[in-house]
Amino acid sequence: MKIDKVETFFVSRFLLCRITTQDGTQGVGESCYWSYPKAAQETIHGLADALIGLDAGNIEHIWNYVWRYNSNFRGNSIGGAISAIDTALWDIKGKRLQAPVWDLLGGKVRHKVRGIAQGISGESPEAASAGAKKAQEEGFTALKFKPMPNNWAELRYTKLVGDAVAMVAAVRETVGWDFDIGIEIHRNMQPSEAVAFAAEVARLRPYFIEDPIVPDSVVAMAEVAEKMQGALAIGERNVGVWEFREYAQLVKPAFFKPDVAVAGGISGVKKIATIADAHHIRICPHNFQGPIATAACIALATSCPSWDVQESVGETESPRRDMVDEVIKLENGWYTPSERPGLGVEFNEAAVGMHPFDPARVSPPIREDGSVALR
Predict the structure, then answer these.
(1) Nearest 5°: CA angle at 325, between 321 and 330?
(2) What is the phi/psi pair of residue 166, to 5°?
(3) CB-side exposure of 339: number of CA atoms within 13 Å?
(4) Which among 286, 336, 338, 340 has a CA at the least distance from the CA of 312?
(5) In 3D, which of 288, 289, 311, 317 has the Cα closest to residue 135?
(6) Are the CB atoms for 295 and 102 separated by under 8 Å?
(7) CB of 301 within 8 A of CB of 115?
(8) Average pLDDT, whole number, for the chain?
(9) pLDDT tens, 261-315?
(10) Secondary structure class of 367 (helix, strand, coil)
């Protein structure tokens, strides 16, 4: 079971890593350093020589070995690379032992996983309400959306906060009270704005308020959390158990948002989920990438008590649907864990030719004075 080959593939902007052992067993993982996926790809290739010849079954050893490789650097390109490698190794182990990954992680703590719908438009109260109604009709019991239009950086303080509250109110009126609403601020507010918004929107009982400010500082996030009403959700840009430890101790959020494709793969997020469990923090993972990352999340969700809801993306549509032989089953807003060995999905290499590399180019908004909107 020694590692013989490490390969990378792009399907659109989704970066995949495939590891092959000497007996031909293959596993696949996904990276989510989506702003700079070429950097994560080069990091995987930089680690490949160190991986060749190692026993693929020693996942914990390999995780620590590559994390400490080349003088112990940090960053999302390294986290994204290790995440893809780690997930591929778990896929191999499951196939070797003919068991689903969730079974290897300790078995089931739940038999299905609640989805939380995404993709709800936030351009107007009417559009957001229509998206919320559609999600509810599809069977979801929770959704997450950004209650600000695309031109949020041009809005004055009063209008920014007021319009955001009005949009959440419209969605609440549409879905009723037996439905959970997650609010995604998307780092688009200053601390004072986030605190004011949270106070005004509290009457609408949001399930959580996610990323109210940019995650530049754990201390700054802790200051906001101390003043902010409601449940805070953070962590989608963070890597490794150490950063989440600091969040648990200093910020004390209600939800962690680790991304299995950047935070450390299945091994890393399993530990983050344990930290969450010890601090009564729930897991609602960041997940907007491909079906391989979703499969990894569902394996973790099936075996981790602290997992709460699973972000849902349109995996029945291209290019995501083309990446695998079948996606993890989602019906009436609930995911059903796969009983197949490994992750439960097989990489479709033909998707590489179907969807050439498409890099992200997301410029920051510019204010009317010409400055960058650093929110």
Answers:
(1) 60
(2) -60, -35
(3) 1
(4) 286
(5) 311
(6) no
(7) no
(8) 94
(9) 999 999 999 999 999 999 999 999 999 889 999 999 999 999 999 999 999 988 8
(10) coil
Q: What's at 246, amino acid-wise?
A: E
Tokens of 177: 């009270």
CB 346 within 8 A of CB 158: no
pLDDT, tens only, 57-112: 999 999 999 999 987 777 889 999 999 999 999 999 999 999 999 999 999 999 99
Model confidence at 368: pLDDT above 90: no
Q: How many other C-beta atoms are found inside a 10 Å radius of the C-beta of residue 77?
A: 24
196 vs 122 pLDDT, higher one: 196
Q: How many helices (H) and strands (E) does the chain have?
A: 13, 13
CA distances (Å), 252 to each of 177, 199, 245, 276, 353, in order?
A: 26, 18, 10, 10, 45
Name the residue with tokens 């700054």: 220
State pTM to two decimals. 0.95
**Alpha-carbon distance 275 to 281, whole Å?**
8
User: Any idea which residue has 């179907």 for tokens?
Assistant: 354
Q: For residue 375, what pLDDT is reported?
A: 58
CA distance 346 to 14: 15
Pairwise CA distance, residues 168 & 171, whole Å: 5
Q: Residue 243 corresponds to which tokens in the numbers above? A: 């950063």
Token digits for 263?
């935070």
Computed from CA positions of residues 96, 100, 104, 105, in that sequence, does the dihedral angle turn out positive or negative? positive
Whole-number Å distance between alpha carbons of 164 and 183: 10
- CB neighbour list of residue 296: distance below 8 Å, 6 or more residues apart: 29, 30, 87, 90, 101, 260, 261, 265, 266, 343
DSSP 201-262: HGGG--SEEE--S-TT-HHHHHHHHHH--S-EEE-TT--HHHHHHHIIIII--SEE---TTT
Question: What are the tokens at 154?
Answer: 């041009």
- 85, 140, 107: which is closest to 310 by C-alpha? 140
Go through the domains of the chain in sequence order and give each one's CATH number: 3-100 (3.30.390.10), 103-343 (3.20.20.120)
Phi, psi of 41, deg, nearest 5: -60, -45
